[in-house]
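dumping this here before i forget
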Amino acid sequence: MRGNLYISIPAGDKANSLPASITRYDWVENTYNEEGEVESSNTVHPSWEAYGEKYAPQYGAPVSVTVGKAEYIVYELTASWKDSEVSALLALGKGKAEPKYTVYTAEEARAFIAANQAQEI
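structure:
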C-alpha cells in the first residue's frame, strides 16, 4: 500500500519529530534481559529522518531536492482526514512559503520533484 500524500520539509528539520498527533508511525523498542524476556519497553515517536528510514520499504525512500540554495526532503505518508492527521501536517506549513512544510498530492509531488531535480549533462 502506498501513501495518500507527500510533504516537503526543510532538510535542516529532518531531526524534528512528526506532529505529536500522528502516532500511527510510532513503534515500540524493547530491551531484553539475558533470559530473552522483555525488561523494558519504550515507545518511539519518530523524527522525520527516522520515519523515512523505517518506512522506506513501505513508502519508498525520501527524495531530496534543491530549490535555489535550500535543500528539502519529500516524504510520502498516509495521513487521515478523519483523525485530524492531515490537519496537523497542514498546520506545520501555515504561514510558510512553499515548499516549507507543503503538503502535496502525488501529481503535485511528482511535478515539484521533477522541477527541482539536478539536471545531469
